[in-house]
Design a protein that fits this description.
By secondary structure, the protein is α/β, with parallel strands linked by helices. It has helices at 61-73, 91-96, 112-121, 123-126, 142-152, 177-184, 204-217, 251-260, 271-276, 282-288, and strands spanning 3-4, 7-11, 17-21, 24-30, 35-41, 45-50, 53-57, 81-86, 104-109, 135-139, 157-163, 187-198, 220-228, 233-241. α6 crosses α7 (204-217). The radius of gyration is 18 Å and the shape is globular. The model has no long low-confidence stretch (mean pLDDT 97).
Length: 290
């Protein structure tokens, strides 16, 4: 939705939405793929939107990025290679580089302008990750990369992160069973796929459909849920794998791994939040029942 008076509004479905006070518009425009806006807001500081949808902000990015990355990474023994599809703001890469074993991250972003926005306006989101020597930044089509480029190069990844816009428009093809299967073929033996699902309260059919698709491809699919302030709702994510189960670790084991790996500057994630994110109230159990 477009800006309305002094409010930035976003629809969660046809019947509900949320808003933020605008603040100052820093930059806006249109790329070959989408429209964009960068705002400095009273609530969250700098944020950016694509096609009228909130993407990330300085003030709350950790609610999203820490859970998208650490829930599937902490259970792994020594994650070393990761692939991010989307994620041009650099927030997911920043979390991955907190792992001392992480050797190489490939980030495939369709729209170069997203990376430009992050470099110029959102340094507190990526914290320099976009210039880390371990990062291979490619401006390319993620679907083509997964289906053709990576297999041709014989690449395998411990984690594949789909850090994408919602499953509409250019990103829609990257939420299909076929694409999930393409990703699975690139995973190392203990590898996992991590992605966001949407708002179960307002987008229940979408969330249920994505979980069903994941279950048709992977042996172990663990949806987890977190409130993300910028998105105005409880938000679903999922870890999918044939071998990795993030529920196998209890809170004390998670906290021990965080300490042992020297992972710091965490504002959200810990052992208790890891475990609690998988607890489902009855309406979610019903929504996601196989």
């Amino acid at each position: 939705m477009a800006a309305d008076d002094d409010r930035l509004t976003e629809a969660l479905n046809d019947n509900a939405g949320h808003y933020l006070k605008q603040g100052r518009l820093i930059e806006s425009g249109t790329t070959p793929y989408q429209s964009y806006e960068v705002w400095d807001t009273p609530q969250f500081g700098r944020l950016f939107r694509l096609d009228g949808y909130f993407m990330t902000s300085e003030g709350d990015e950790f609610f999203y990025h820490e859970n998208l990355i650490h829930v599937p990474c902490i259970p792994q023994d020594a994650p070393a290679r990761a692939l991010i599809i989307g994620g041009g703001d650099g927030g997911s890469a920043d979390e991955l580089f907190k792992y001392p074993t992480m050797e190489h991250v490939t980030l495939v972003e369709l729209d170069a302008k997203v990376v430009d926005i992050a470099r110029q306006h959102l340094p507190r989101v990526h914290n320099g990750a976009l210039d880390d020597p371990r990062l291979d930044l490619q401006i390319a089509d993620g679907l083509h990369y997964v289906r053709h480029t990576a297999p041709a190069n014989g690449e395998r990844f411990d984690l594949i992160v789909l850090d994408l816009t919602d499953p509409i428009g250019p990103a829609e093809a990257l939420y299909t069973e076929t694409f999930f299967a393409d990703c699975k073929r690139l995973l190392a033996p203990q590898g996992a796929l991590s992605l966001h699902l949407g708002a179960p309260v307002f987008q229940g059919e979408r969330v249920a459909a994505l979980v069903k698709r994941l279950r048709s491809v992977f042996a172990c699919v663990r949806p987890h849920f977190h409130y993300v302030p910028l998105y105005g709702s409880l938000w679903g994510m999922a870890c999918a794998s044939d071998t990795l189960d993030p529920l196998a670790l209890d809170p004390s084991a998670v906290d021990a791994r965080v300490r042992q790996r020297g992972i710091d500057h965490l504002q959200y994630y810990n052992g208790d939040t890891h475990r609690a994110a998988f607890a489902q109230p009855n309406y979610l159990r019903d929504l996601l029942a196989p």
